[in-house]
Amino acid sequence: MLVLRLNKSGLPQAWITLEEAAKYYSQDRVLFELGESKRVLRGGWNNQGFQSRLTLSSIIGCDGKVTPPSGKVPLNNRYLFRRDNYLCMYCGQKFRIPELTRDHIIPRAKGGRDTWTNCASACNRCNCFKADRTPEEAGLSLIAVPFTPNIYERFYLMNRRILSDQMVFLGSHFSKNRTWENVNNKDNVGI
């Protein structure tokens, strides 16, 4: 389990280990807890026979300097395919990671850039068919408009084992651009 650490204003700062979270608790730097998932760490025994215990929440707000994270999400295939829910943005089918490619909507050969808003997940077949043409030139259409993930979506992309209460917190701040999130949503076969 990773703990989602927030700053005191509630912005996500990092995914941290249980040991790192325990350090924040022991330094009395946890200002608030969110979420329902708890984990109990057990420590040593004192001379009266009592074992120390520390209960950790899955989401903690910590004291410290409030600095907004950079918000920049690196564009890589792992994050791109996860953003697109492992769907080909042309045929709408779900694929495993090795079966997906990064498609440049405006091809690089025509001046297209390697940005979140110009890239989409595509299966090998659709990407080969499209080649170095725009979707219009190839007679294809996107099932959704590509977008740059916000800070909360960034933390979703960074962690593959998100607890349900962490997902509720992050998901409540997702942009409305994730229109295909539930399309063809079976198991996360790419994970």
TrEMBL record:
Q: What SMART domains is this protein classified in? A: HNHc (SM00507)
Q: What keywords sit in the KW lines? A: Endonuclease, Hydrolase, Nuclease
Indicate the segments forming the HNH nuclease domain, all copies.
75-128
Q: Which GO terms describe its molecular function?
A: endonuclease activity
Q: What is this protein called?
A: Restriction endonuclease
> Cross-referenced PANTHER family, in alphabetical order?
OS07G0170200 PROTEIN (PTHR33877:SF2), SLL1193 PROTEIN (PTHR33877)
Q: What is the lineage of its organism?
A: Bacteria, Pseudomonadati, Pseudomonadota, Gammaproteobacteria, Alteromonadales
Q: Which InterPro entries match?
A: HNH_5, HNH_nuc, NA-targeting_endonuclease
